[in-house]
C-alpha cells in the first residue's frame, strides 16, 4: 500500500464501506510512517479531517478499529496532540487527569495521563502522578469525545463515561481544550 496517502482519509465516506475496510484504511494510514523513506502516517491527517471521519463512521466501524492492533497507534496520535489543542493560560499548580480507555483486545485498559499546568499540558503514556480526576470510557466513546462528535454529558448520564474524583475538572475539559470539530 505504498501509494496510499493518509490524507485521502478525509475524502472517504465511511458509510460506503464495511467495518473491516474502515479498519484496513486506518491500518494502512498508520503503516505509512513505518515504511522506508516515509515521513507521514496518521499524523499527516488534519485534526478536523480526522474528526469528520470519526463523526461519519458507524459504531461498528469505531468498534472494529478500537478492537484491532491499530488501536494503539490511534490512541498514541490522539495523546500526542493533546498539548497542541490545550488552551494555555497563566501558570498554576498542576491538575492531573488520568484516562482509562476500556475495551482493549486483551480485555485490559489503555491508561495515560494529562498534567495541566495552566501554561502548558503534558501528556504521559504512563501515569506518573496521582490523579485529581480519572475518566473511564470505551474506545469508541473516546474517539467520539476527542473528535468533538460525542456529548460528554449524555455519555456520563448513560453510564458510557465515568468520572472518579474531581467532577468539576472533568466538566470543564471542553473549555480547556480546543476540540477539533467535523
UniProtKB/TrEMBL annotation:
<dbReference type="Pfam" id="PF02036">
    <property type="entry name" value="SCP2"/>
</dbReference>
<protein>
    <submittedName>
        <fullName>SCP-2 sterol transfer family protein</fullName>
    </submittedName>
</protein>
<dbReference type="InterPro" id="IPR003033">
    <property type="entry name" value="SCP2_sterol-bd_dom"/>
</dbReference>
<dbReference type="InterPro" id="IPR036527">
    <property type="entry name" value="SCP2_sterol-bd_dom_sf"/>
</dbReference>
<feature type="domain" description="SCP2">
    <location>
        <begin position="95"/>
        <end position="177"/>
    </location>
</feature>
Amino acid at each position: 500500500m505504498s501509494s496510499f496517502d493518509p490524507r485521502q482519509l478525509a475524502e472517504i465516506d465511511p458509510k460506503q464501506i464495511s467495518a473491516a475496510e474502515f479498519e484496513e484504511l486506518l491500518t494502512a494510514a498508520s503503516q505509512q510512517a513505518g515504511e522506508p523513506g516515509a515521513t507521514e502516517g496518521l499524523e499527516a491527517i488534519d485534526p478536523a479531517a480526522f474528526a469528520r471521519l470519526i463523526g461519519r463512521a458507524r459504531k461498528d466501524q469505531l468498534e472494529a478499529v478500537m478492537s484491532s492492533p491499530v488501536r494503539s497507534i490511534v490512541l498514541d496520535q490522539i495523546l500526542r496532540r493533546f498539548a497542541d489543542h490545550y488552551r494555555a493560560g497563566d501558570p498554576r499548580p498542576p491538575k492531573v487527569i488520568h484516562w482509562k480507555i476500556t475495551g482493549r483486545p486483551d480485555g485490559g485498559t489503555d491508561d495515560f495521563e494529562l498534567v495541566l499546568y495552566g501554561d502548558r499540558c503534558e501528556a504521559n503514556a504512563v501515569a506518573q502522578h496521582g490523579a485529581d480526576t480519572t475518566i473511564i470510557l470505551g474506545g469508541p466513546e473516546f474517539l467520539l469525545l476527542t473528535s468533538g462528535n460525542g456529548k460528554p454529558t449524555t455519555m456520563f448520564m448513560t453510564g458510557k463515561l465515568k468520572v472518579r474524583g474531581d467532577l468539576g475538572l472533568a466538566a470543564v475539559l471542553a473549555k480547556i481544550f480546543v476540540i477539533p470539530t467535523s
